[in-house]
Amino acid sequence: MSGNFRTKRLPRTAIEENTIAYFRTAEGTRPDLRLVQFEDRRIIVKDFNRSDRLFRAIVGPVLIRRELGALRILDGLPGIPRLVGEVDRYALAMEHIPGRSLDRVEPGTLPQEFYDNLLQVVDQMHARGIAHCDLRSRGNVVLGDDGKPYIVDFAACVFRGRGLNPFIRWVFEQFVLADRNAVLLIKQRLSPELLTDEDRSQLAQELPYERPAKFIGQNVRKLTRILLTRTRRSW
Ligand SMILES: Nc1ncnc2c1ncn2[C@@H]1O[C@H](COP(=O)(O)OP(=O)(O)OP(=O)(O)O)[C@@H](O)[C@H]1O
Ligand SMILES: [Mg+2]
Question: Which residue among 2, 72, 91, 150 has its CA within the 20 to 30 Å range from the CA of 205?
Fold first, then answer.
């Protein structure tokens, strides 16, 4: 992948003409997830262009900027799809990871090595100053065809920045704990037979800010859907 290609803007027309499949089609607050044949490879384009009008105008560009920022910082880290480029303020393109997300993986099929690798990716991501904050959602972890874990969907991530402010550092640390805990929750769900005593005792401890964080997260999501989409849906 040349340096030039990575920074150039990808034209929307080329993306639309070369879309070969949709992983998901846009509705409400959700983006289109397109699989696109671009030059000699397949890429994923996350695209809010066809999401609900207000959401597209107000929130979509913020989420795209956030994800772009995270993918730039994480670029080159094994276990994170590489950023391919920006389409416009509503869409970005990244490497396609052949595989399937963990919400489609049968319980009892993953080895311990998968969780060790996943925790390693999570720790390296934190070392670069990004907390994911939505790893509980198993759709955000992909089991690659190479058997390795990949993390996607940085729309909700938190940036530590330079970490000079002690309060920000402390807040970031809470998200780090939540990400690490989310790996254990995935393991509990998909591979309970692999849980060690240490894992179990960590799972038994509630994180200090788990309840308020969940409450705020759920209500912000509800409010966004009520205010920024035309269709009311059940959540
Ligand atoms: N780079 C990628 N390579 C392969 N599959 C991907 C990639 N990015 C996303 N996916 C697939 O598309 C799905 C949705 O992507 P993503 O989670 O980024 O979108 P989202 O709209 O934020 O979804 P959700 O609201 O469900 O979290 C993922 O669960 C994963 O299966
Ligand atoms: Mg997701």
Answer: 150
